[in-house]
Design goal:
Number of domains: 1
Oligomer: single chain
Strand content: 15-25%
CATH class: Alpha Beta
Radius of gyration: 13 Å
Strand order of the largest sheet: 2-1-3-4-5
CATH architecture: 3-Layer(aba) Sandwich
Order of helices and strands: EEHEHEHEH
Length: about 110
C-alpha cells in the first residue's frame, strides 16, 4: 500500500508502489482512507490550488501526518515558510509541515 501521497507532485527515485499520485480535485476523505498516507507532498503553488489550501483541506479532513511542500526558487523562502507554519498551527495542529527547497527537492 502506498504510504506517500503526491498531490500534483513528483518524487523521483521513489520505489514502485511507495507513492500514489492524485490531482487536487481528488483529495477527499475517501482517498485518504483508502491510501492512509503517512506523508503528503504538494507544490507551494499549482494552477488550481496552493499549499495553504492543501493544509486547510487536510486539516478539515482531520488528517494526521507530515506534509512536505515543494518550494520553487524564492527570494525569501523563510517568510513563506513562517506563513505556512503559522497557518498550519492554527488550522491543522495535528499536521507537521516541512518545506523542501529546490536544491533539496532535487536529491
Amino acid at each position: 500500500m502506498p504510504r506517500i501521497l503526491l498531490i500534483e507532485a513528483d518524487l523521483p527515485g521513489a520505489a514502485p508502489g511507495e507513492t500514489e499520485r492524485l490531482c487536487w480535485q481528488q483529495l477527499n476523505a475517501v482517498h485518504l482512507r483508502r491510501i492512509q498516507p503517512v506523508m503528503v507532498i504538494c507544490p507551494l503553488l499549482a494552477r488550481d490550488f496552493d499549499a495553504i489550501e492543501v493544509i486547510d483541506r487536510l486539516g478539515r479532513l482531520k488528517w494526521h501526518g507530515a506534509l512536505h511542500v515543494l518550494f520553487p526558487a524564492l527570494p525569501n523562502p523563510g517568510l513563506v515558510r513562517r506563513e505556512l507554519l503559522a497557518f498550519a498551527r492554527d488550522h491543522a495542529p495535528a499536521m507537521s509541515v516541512e518545506t523542501l527547497e529546490p536544491e533539496i527537492a532535487a536529491l
